[in-house]
Design brief:
Elements: E1 6-10, E2 16-20, H1 24-50, H2 53-56, H3 62-69, H4 74-90, H5 103-106, H6 116-132, H7 139-155, H8 166-169, H9 183-193, E3 196-199, E4 213-216, E5 233-234, E6 240-241, E7 245-248, H10 256-269, E8 274-280, H11 286-290, E9 295-299, E10 316-321, H12 325-332, E11 336-339
Parallel strand pairs: 3-4, 7-8
Antiparallel strand pairs: 1-2, 5-6, 8-10, 9-10, 9-11
Helix pairs in contact: 1-4, 6-7, 7-9, 9-12
Length: about 350
């Protein structure tokens, strides 16, 4: 039992005031209120979204209402709404249960929201992974289950069906510096960004591209010389965004130095608002030292790049240039050790 004590606070005129520390009973009541309020908020967001409350107030979309009314809490509102919609799938539409699962644990499942059976199966697998290690389920276990599902989907492709377009398979040989991102890494990027705006060093455009992005620059486009400040994007709801979230998996030969420099320059100049950069683990290189100012995920084991029969002959790292460090940890913690900026 915590014994009541006094703590000193200061009000606006700097007059010290004494207040009593909570008793255990008071703390339990307060904790219950906090949890209940958080759960209720998620239910309200889902109901407001599904029943078009935003339209009743004269807004053209939920996103438009959120931008106008939630202010600095807009991003959190999106996260909680998405979490609630995922919970609704897990609970088969029973809204009374919404709000029970931490939002961080639900975030990696966002890409499966439109496939309820897959979403529920992956959630069950996350619990199995946690149980097998004698651990309490965390976002790391969920991300691991999502990555496992992505890999199983690739492995299940018929042998006669090429796992990568011929133009991509040719680039995987040791005679080329190009390596194509595995699906589970792309899922991590989409979990963090919501969607990828720009792939400036893409293998192709549109549906032929390995990375799903709004804009692709191929070798013929010479992404190094292009402006990365894309035109504002208007979504299906009519809302406009000026954000540019770039995913960069550069050629791994002599060109990598220029791509690292271009990515850092685009971020610091404001051309792009966020970036994830996939590079080989080479801490002794000059370009690696330039990335020490940013958070990094050191990928466990060796990535098996698209079209390869085995893991890469080098370790991999994913650097994050952006302000959502919590989101980076949540999104990538399941595939490696996430470290803060070294500088």
């Amino acid at each position: 039992m915590v014994q009541p004590q006094s703590v000193t606070l200061f009000d606006t005129d700097d007059t010290p005031q004494l207040i009593a520390v909570m008793t255990e009973a008071e703390a339990l009541d307060a904790e219950r209120d906090i949890i209940t309020t958080g759960n209720r908020l998620r239910i309200l967001l889902v109901t407001f979204y599904e029943r078009r409350g935003w339209a009743a107030l004269g807004y053209t979309s939920w996103r438009g209402w959120a931008a106008a009314r939630l202010g600095e809490s807009e991003r959190r509102g999106y996260q909680e709404l998405t979490a609630g919609l995922i919970e609704a799938v897990l609970y088969h539409g029973t809204k009374d249960e919404i709000g029970q699962i931490p939002e961080r644990q639900l975030r990696p499942l966002a890409s499966l929201r439109d496939d309820p059976p897959a979403l529920r199966e992956t959630w069950g697998r996350a619990n199995e992974i946690a149980d097998a290690h004698g651990e309490t389920r965390t976002a790391r276990h969920v991300q691991a289950a999502v990555a496992e599902r992505q890999q199983h989907e690739v492995d299940a492709l018929p042998a006669e069906l090429p796992r990568v377009a011929p133009r991509m398979a040719a680039h995987y040989t040791s005679e080329t510096p190009e390596w194509y991102t595995p699906a589970h890494v792309i899922t991590c990027v989409e979990t963090l960004f919501g969607h990828i705006d720009l792939d400036p060093c893409s293998n192709a455009k549109g549906e032929d591209a390995n990375v799903p992005a709004r804009v692709h620059f191929t070798r013929e486009d010479d992404g190094l010389s292009q402006s990365w400040r894309l035109a504002p994007y208007t979504d299906e709801d009519g809302d406009t965004s000026h954000a540019v979230r770039a995913y960069v998996n550069p050629p791994y030969g002599d060109e990598i130095d220029a791509w690292v420099e271009r990515t850092v320059s685009a971020y610091t100049s404001g051309e792009i608002t966020e970036a994830v950069l996939l590079v080989p683990g080479r801490p002794g290189s000059g370009w690696w030292r330039r990335l020490r100012a940013y958070a990094v995920c050191l990928v466990d084991g060796r990535l098996r790049f698209v079209g390869a029969d085995a893991g890469a002959p080098f370790p991999s790292a994913l650097f994050y240039l952006g302000s959502d460090l919590e989101g980076f940890v949540d999104s990538f913690g399941g595939i490696g050790e996430v470290r803060p900026a070294a500088l």
